[in-house]
Amino acid sequence: MTERTGGSRRTVITASALAEPAASLSGYTVGVTADRRRDELAGLLENRGARVVLAPALRIVPIADDAELRAATRACLSTPPDVVLVNTGIGMRGWLEAAESWGLAEPLRTVLARAYLVARGPKARAAVRTAGLQDQWAPEGESFDEVVDHLSERGIAGLTIAIQLHGESQPEYTETLQAAGAQVIEVPVYRWAPPTDPAPLHRLVDLVAARLVDAVTFTSAPAVGALLRAAGPECDNVLEAFRTDVLAACVGPVTAAPLRGHDVPVVAPPRARLSSLVRTIVDELPRRALTIEVSGHSLTLRGHAAIVDGELRPLAPAPMAVLRALAATPGRVLSRAALLHMLPRGADEHAVEMAVARLRAGLGTPGIVQTVVKRGYRLPN
Which of the listed CATH numbers 3.40.50.10090, 3.30.565.10, 1.10.1660.10, 3.40.50.620 matches domain 2-58+195-288? Predict the structure, then answer.
């Protein structure tokens, strides 16, 4: 069952659904920062049982009528490039569509067919071949560094290189190619812009900082930067959450690079596909889950749920926080004052008692949370 609330969607899974392979992310919350393919990615995650928070970090703004794109296209026609770097599938398609609207599609195809085409990734390669063209090389890791190294080894002095930009200029690579003696034509097909409604992104930042999501997916490096900028003064806290409790899942190494630059451990699939990204999350999140034995029962903690003897038990944030604290040291008694620190600010010891009561009701199994008179609570061994 899918629910939509405040621009986000969430999937509620019954306990019996846990046994189904498709529900392998039941009990987890995953943030999605993609815009263009957000529904596709959200659907893949929801089909696995995840609760999804949609929070586009950026949106793509086509600039087919932009004078810069037209000027870059005419520059390629007047000075046919020896090498063309196709960065993205959407960029390649947008460039050809814009050229078609100007009556320049066939001349542009002719120029591209004669060039040494480099496709930086499978989507770029697919767009090249759909256009009836043939790429000559693609970097194994899909990174700009590999492209620059490859072209430098081939020798580019005196050559003209056209680069279909990936949303924004990357002067560090352009300058490296120019320093090696190449003339560079930058082709701006689209640009990144802030989301029309920034509220979902700011909400996701708050959820990450509070460790109330289990993973966040990224499908572009600019989206990483946009989320960190949205974090503002909370940026350090968000980064620390990614280093410890929140899984950063990136579609490929280029997307992962900004996070790795902040010493954030990242998971990425071997192939840059949304389905592969979801499979990576399916493999990783359950592996991080804590499983303990309590009073003869198997207890596994997921993001917003517990699994008791194979049955999924969704829990509200406060009872879940209490359970996590108790499960960290099974058998140890935690006082109400100690558990109070796990609850939102402003809570009192009565709130701890309410959270424990809701936890017991949510678990539905007597004896898991034990009261130790005048001392507090524990999970008995």
Answer: 3.40.50.10090
pTM of the model: 0.77
pLDDT > 70 in the chain, percent: 93
- Please give the single-letter amino acid code of residue 325: A
Domain ranges within the chain, ordered by starting residue: 2-58+195-288, 61-192, 290-378
Do the two domains 61-192 and 290-378 of this chain adopt the same fold?
Answer: no
- Quick one: fold of 61-192? Rossmann fold (3.40.50)
> pLDDT by residue (tens digit) across 18-60?
444 336 899 999 999 999 889 999 999 999 999 999 999 999 8
Q: Tokens representing 250?
A: 């990136």
CA angle 333, 337, 340 (to 5 degrees): 105
pLDDT at residue 372 above 70?
A: yes
Residue 232: other Cβ atoms inside 10 A: 10
Show Cβ contacts of residue 29 under 8 Å, excluding neighbours closer than 6 positions: 10, 50, 51, 52, 53, 207, 212, 213, 214, 215, 303, 304
Core vs surface per residue 257-274: b (16+ CB within 10 A) or e: bbbeebebebbbbeebeb
Residue 112 to residues 98, 168, 254: CA-CA distances in angstroms? 15, 22, 25
